[in-house]
Design goal:
The protein is built from 11 helices and 9 strands. It is α+β, with helices and mostly antiparallel strands. α1 packs parallel to α4 (about 55-90), α2 (about 20-35) runs antiparallel to α4 (about 55-90) and α5 (about 110-125) packs across α10 (about 310-320). The N and C termini lie far apart (about 90 Å). The protein binds 3,4-dihydroxyphenylalanine. 3,4-dihydroxyphenylalanine binds next to β8 and β9.
Length: about 350
């Protein structure tokens, strides 16, 4: 019996020594000390050992067990140490490696221009109204004095979603929502995306506009001119002047096209202003009485002016871009150059 136990013990110790990793060691532990292990079998057989021999045999079994457990413990420590070493090795950081530079993100030029416009008009006391990109024909056209058979509908190629719904072609639709919801005095801007079936170097099917609307007692074209003079100085520089040319929009009467003196040549004539000294920047006018009345505003008491700015157009002028597509292509080589 003593020899048998010695054999069990030596075999177990050699198995423990051969366990190459923690998993293997765990398996060995189960085999050697588990229910089906040889040592357990010996213990189970104790009932067949003569009573006087039992204490001695019991002592041998305990000694074998203690030796195996001590060895297991030692091997466990050794393997844990090795595993930790391997982990440290794997997680080693080479502090001499060049750093990975994370490129900081930045706002898109259109967002920058939009924010600048909102800041300028915000400083003049305008509130911001954000309309929806899907509009009804009524808000986009009819309420803006452009009924079904109006020839001005041809000025804008519209994406219709149904006879009633469309993708708004102009942020002017916001004017009606604001006037329906609020009584004068009104002083609001409405930036947002607009859509038209139009596609060339200076037009895109999706672009951004910013609408402006002021309605109060005694508002005239002079107020519009005064506000525009301030606005263009802020966005294009102190020396910039404005010029109004007669134009036509169904929702304003009179309507004007607003030019600014060329901020590149100062008005002498250059490539940007095509030699004229002036650059067209926006459409505007005195709000047509029909529009005010349609929104329940008493035209004996109130009048207003409105304007619509193309945000991409301002961005193109500011950054000297001649193709609107450059603003939508997300080409980092281009966008990086546009950040002052
Ligand atoms: N909605 C016009 C357009 O998209 C721009 C415009 C012109 C807006 C004159 C106005 C305005 O508010 O008064 O072409």
């Amino acid at each position: 019996m003593q020899n048998k136990l010695k054999e069990i013990r030596e075999k177990a110790i050699s198995q423990i020594e051969n366990a190459a990793n923690l998993e293997a060691l765990n398996e060995v532990r189960n085999v050697v000390l588990g229910k089906k292990g040889e040592l357990t079998a010996v213990l189970r057989g104790m009932k067949d050992v003569a009573a006087e021999d039992r204490p001695k045999v019991g002592q041998w079994v305990n000694e074998a067990r203690d030796a195996i457990e001590t060895k297991l413990e030692a091997q466990l420590k050794k393997l844990e140490k090795e595993a930790l070493k391997l982990r440290y090795e794997a997680e080693k950081i080479d502090v001499t490696m060049p750093e990975v530079v994370a490129e900081p993100g930045s706002l898109h030029p259109i967002t920058l221009v939009k924010n600048e416009l909102v800041d300028i008009f915000g400083s003049m006391g305008f509130e911001v109204f954000e309309g929806t990109e899907i509009e009804t024909d009524y808000y986009n056209f009819t309420a803006l004095n452009t009924p079904d058979d109006h020839p001005a509908r041809d000025m804008q190629d519209t994406f219709y979603l149904s006879p009633e719904f469309l993708l708004r072609t102009q942020t002017s639709a916001g004017q009606i929502h604001v006037m329906e919801a609020k009584k004068p005095p009104i002083k609001v801007i409405s930036p947002g995306k607009v859509f038209r079936s139009d596609d060339d170097a200076t037009h895109s099917p999706m672009f951004s506009q910013m609408e402006g609307l002021v309605v109060d007692k005694g508002i005239s074209l002079c107020d519009l001119k005064g506000m525009l003079d301030e606005f263009v100085k802020k966005i294009f520089g102190k020396e910039t002047k404005t010029r109004l040319r007669p134009s036509y929009f169904p929702f304003t009467e009179p309507s004007v096209e607003v030019d600014v003196s060329c901020f590149q040549c100062g008005g002498c004539g250059c490539k940007l202003c095509k030699g004229t000294g002036w650059i067209e920047v926006l459409g505007a006018g005195v709000v047509n009485n029909k529009v005010l009345e349609g929104c329940g505003i008493d035209t004996n008491e109130y009048s207003g002016f409105a304007f619509g700015i193309g945000i991409e157009r301002i961005a193109m002028l500011k950054y000297g871009i001649n193709n609107i597509k450059m603003l939508f292509e997300s080409d980092m080589r281009v966008l990086k150059q546009l950040h002052e």
